Fold Pilin.
Amino acid sequence: MPDTRIRQRGFTLIELVAVIVVLGIVAAIAVPRFINFFEGAINANMVQIAANYKAGVDQVNAKWLAAGSPGPKLNFIPLPAAQAGGDLSVNANGWPADTRGVSLTLNSGNDCLDVWRAVLSPGAPSVSLTLGAADFHTQYLGANSCRYRNEKDLTKHIEFNSNTGIVVTNL
């Protein structure tokens, strides 16, 4: 008489353990690569923002040079009120100083905000004097210099020296 019992089919314990081991190895390789991918994306974004900032600063200086290097000038470049809140003033070297018409040198956190908003196009990452309130947190460093720290990673920042026009990215 034929055997009428139904055989159960399934995975053995050894097969399940082998699959779990393989998945663990794949995860151990993939997770660090994913973390490095995220870090690389932040770095690439920082470099791009710094390049745009430097291009804006250089454009202001080129306009000042084309005007005959007229020295420090209040309200040198007219700006839309929505962009920066006032016209851009430049210092004695032709580098951006503020947009409130009060200073011919970059000498405060508010001046750092002014320059960021004036040299970057509308839609650029936001900036604030308050930590955690925007994409970037700005600090006045003294000696006519600003630091813009990335809120996603505060060790990454962009620095601007308005004495020389140098923009440095620290990754």
